[in-house]
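Thread: sanity check for a docking pose with zinc ion

Original post by kr_44:
Hi all, I'm comparing my docking run against an independent structure prediction. Below are the sequence and the ligand SMILES. Could someone generate the full complex and paste the structure tokens? I mainly care about where the ligand ends up relative to the chain.
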Amino acid sequence: MRNIRKSAPGEIAGYPVTAQRRLLLDLIREAGGHIDAKEIYRRASSRDESISLATVYRGLRLFKELGLVDEIRLGEVRGYYEIKRSVEHQHLVCKRCGKVIEFESPLIGEMVAKAQRAYSFNVTKAELYLEGYCQECKKKDS
Ligand SMILES: [Zn+2]
Ligand SMILES: [Zn+2]
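Reply from moderator J.T.:
Ran it for you. Here is the predicted complex with zinc ion included:
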């Protein structure tokens, strides 16, 4: 069993934080969510040339394990990262400009509760994304 202890300054959940990891977390935070690994790498390497894509992926994996970030799938291939929040939310994704809009709906919680009851199933994750065109892209197309 992993020994969980309180974080000291300069540590994340008891793990020593390198300056690079701190930078990665800052970048995800600054992006306000929904940033993918390649974009994190692009921004990180402009501030710290020694950072590699492998460092980014390792950092992201660790953040996920520690429950600091969520990896979300929006569309078929891209994995997006965002700082974990207590409020569950879902995503609207624009197919044209890639904009991600967050929304909350009580329906999802109700659906989960219903599924749990009906199938005695313990739901640990519910993810929904709706794809389409944002207001600006809709205007441009018409
Ligand atoms: Zn759009
Ligand atoms: Zn989100």
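The helical segments are 19-31, 37-47, 53-65, 106-119, 135-141. Hope that helps with the comparison, let us know if your pose agrees.
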